[in-house]
Structure formats: structure tokens, C-alpha cells
């Protein structure tokens, strides 16, 4: 395989990128944007080398603890569970939540072999039972898999004597949190209900 084919193969690893778009990206970079190609290569290498997961909430971080977990002014009684760093960023942009987070590695999907182990339920339960958390807000997406994930988490938390709530139904069914408008998320948060 030559260098061009290698590049196209590598680009195809990105979500939603098929053979054709990978080809288009590769041709564009090599024909029109060599400086961009260099910058992209460097940025990828830097990120792959330095970005890891926060020890406490598992979001992306370049330090052992992320900025939010380091912030002692947040409400330690609240723990919001999301599916991805992108969903966490969406919650943060609403500026209406001031507790801490736990970021799962996706959501349950038994058909794809993604179980409680893959998404990190055990570390979540450990984090939630630190003695300070009083309410776990389940902010997984409103897709069938996101709902199933919230249900499993609610049962596991209940078995450990922890209270959990779910975002209210204002969020359209089938939505990924990161694509929902901020006002809707903020309302869903205020109107959260016992799960
Ligand atoms: Zn963190």
C-alpha cells in the first residue's frame, strides 16, 4: 500500500467517513493545503500523546484531574451522568448546572456487545458512593439505548441507597444531548423527575 492509500485508510476510521469522503479529504489536503496537512498531523499526534481521561469523572483531560473536578466551588451533592465529553460540554453551555459530572464511555448496546463493563458503570458507582453525592442526575440521551442505560443505572444506584433523577421529557425522543438546544436542556434539568 502506498502513502496515499494509507492516508485514505486512516481517514476512513473517522465516524461517518466512507471511501469517497476519505478520498476527497486526502486529495484536498495534498493538492490545496499542505500546511493544513502538516498542522493536522501535528495536532493529532499531540492530542493522542497528551489527552487522557480524568481520574475522577473520566472526561478528556490533559491533567490527572480535569478543570471541573478541580473546581471546589461546585455542588458536591450533585453528580450528572452523561454519555460523552460532547454531551458534558452541552450541559456546561447551558450554565444552569453547578454540580460535578461522570462521563460514561458511551451507552449500553447489548447487540453490539457494549455492556456495563465497556461503558464504565463500576467506576461510576464507586464515584457516586463517595459519601457526598446525594442525587445522581441521569442525562443519557433520549434514544432507546440511552433510556435503557438510564434504567440500568437507576436500578444499580437504588440498590446502593442512592437517589437518581432523569432529565424531564422536554428533550425530543431519539435525541442525542449534544444536538439539543441549550434552553431545552436547561428546562429538562430544572424539571428533572425521580427515575
Ligand atoms: Zn474530571
From TrEMBL:
<feature type="zinc finger region" description="C4-type">
    <location>
        <begin position="54"/>
        <end position="69"/>
    </location>
</feature>
<comment type="similarity">
    <text>Belongs to the RecR family.</text>
</comment>
<keyword id="KW-0227">DNA damage</keyword>
<keyword id="KW-0233">DNA recombination</keyword>
<protein>
    <recommendedName>
        <fullName>Recombination protein RecR</fullName>
    </recommendedName>
</protein>
<dbReference type="InterPro" id="IPR006171">
    <property type="entry name" value="TOPRIM_dom"/>
</dbReference>
<dbReference type="Pfam" id="PF21176">
    <property type="entry name" value="RecR_HhH"/>
</dbReference>
<dbReference type="InterPro" id="IPR034137">
    <property type="entry name" value="TOPRIM_RecR"/>
</dbReference>
<keyword id="KW-0862">Zinc</keyword>
<keyword id="KW-0479">Metal-binding</keyword>
<dbReference type="Pfam" id="PF21175">
    <property type="entry name" value="RecR_C"/>
</dbReference>
<dbReference type="InterPro" id="IPR023627">
    <property type="entry name" value="Rcmb_RecR"/>
</dbReference>
<dbReference type="InterPro" id="IPR000093">
    <property type="entry name" value="DNA_Rcmb_RecR"/>
</dbReference>
<dbReference type="InterPro" id="IPR015967">
    <property type="entry name" value="Rcmb_RecR_Znf"/>
</dbReference>
<dbReference type="Pfam" id="PF13662">
    <property type="entry name" value="Toprim_4"/>
</dbReference>
<dbReference type="GO" id="GO:0008270">
    <property type="term" value="F:zinc ion binding"/>
</dbReference>
<keyword id="KW-0234">DNA repair</keyword>
<dbReference type="GO" id="GO:0006281">
    <property type="term" value="P:DNA repair"/>
</dbReference>
<keyword id="KW-0863">Zinc-finger</keyword>
<dbReference type="Pfam" id="PF02132">
    <property type="entry name" value="RecR_ZnF"/>
</dbReference>
<dbReference type="GO" id="GO:0006310">
    <property type="term" value="P:DNA recombination"/>
</dbReference>
<dbReference type="GO" id="GO:0003677">
    <property type="term" value="F:DNA binding"/>
</dbReference>
<comment type="function">
    <text>May play a role in DNA repair. It seems to be involved in an RecBC-independent recombinational process of DNA repair. It may act with RecF and RecO.</text>
</comment>
Amino acid at each position: 500500500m502506498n502513502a496515499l492509500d494509507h492516508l485514505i485508510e486512516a481517514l476512513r476510521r473517522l465516524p461517518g467517513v466512507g471511501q469517497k469522503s476519505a478520498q476527497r479529504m486526502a486529495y484536498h489536503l495534498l493538492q490545496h493545503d499542505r500546511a493544513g496537512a502538516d498542522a493536522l498531523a501535528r495536532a493529532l499526534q499531540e492530542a493522542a500523546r497528551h489527552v487522557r481521561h480524568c481520574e475522577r469523572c473520566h472526561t478528556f483531560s490533559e491533567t490527572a484531574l480535569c478543570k471541573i473536578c478541580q473546581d471546589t466551588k461546585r455542588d458536591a451533592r450533585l453528580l450528572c451522568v452523561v454519555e460523552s465529553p460532547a454531551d458534558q460540554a452541552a450541559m456546561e453551555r447551558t450554565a444552569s448546572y453547578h454540580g460535578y459530572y461522570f462521563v460514561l464511555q458511551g451507552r449500553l448496546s447489548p447487540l453490539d456487545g457494549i455492556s456495563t463493563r465497556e461503558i464504565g458503570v463500576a467506576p461510576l458507582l464507586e464515584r457516586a458512593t463517595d459519601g457526598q453525592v446525594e442525587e445522581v442526575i441521569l442525562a443519557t440521551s433520549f434514544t432507546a439505548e440511552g433510556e435503557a442505560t438510564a434504567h440500568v443505572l437507576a436500578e444499580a444506584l437504588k440498590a446502593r441507597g442512592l437517589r437518581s433523577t432523569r432529565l424531564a421529557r422536554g428533550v425530543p425522543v431519539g435525541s442525542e444531548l449534544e444536538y439539543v438546544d441549550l434552553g431545552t436542556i436547561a428546562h429538562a434539568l430544572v424539571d428533572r423527575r425521580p427515575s
